[in-house]
Hints:
The protein is mostly helical. Helix content is 80%, strand content 0%. The protein has a domain at 39-141. It has six helices and no strands. The radius of gyration is 27 Å and the shape is elongated. The N and C termini lie far apart (59 Å).
Amino acid sequence: MFIVVLIIALIIVCGLAFYAGALLFKLKQQRQIQESRRADRARSIIQSIQTIALAMSQQQCNLSEGCIRLSHLLESIPEHNKPDYSQQFPGVYTLFAHVKNLPTHDARKKLSKTDLRMQDTRREEREAELEPLILKDVEALLTFFPAN
């Protein structure tokens, strides 16, 4: 009788061990898939950053628009221990801070011509003031690859 109980207990333990092993294997596969997707997303974001930086360096993209896009992309890179990109790329983030709350689309259309002109003049002055620093940041972003 004792042998039968021992054999049944051994079968149950072996079954549970096999099941636990199968779950651990599936978990490992899921983590690998997640890591692969995270790396693919990071590569895609970095490629977008470099494309926008190239367009800005060739004056094919407005500095304000480029800074808005770059700052959002930099913040969306899936990284562990994300560095403070505002310190690494101060020109981009300074202009972004200046233009991020300006009205766009329908809100911009509702502005009077005087207000619109004043807003555009302030934005263009800030762009001109920060252009050397932004272009320096853009050059660094052309070869940008974050440390993971």
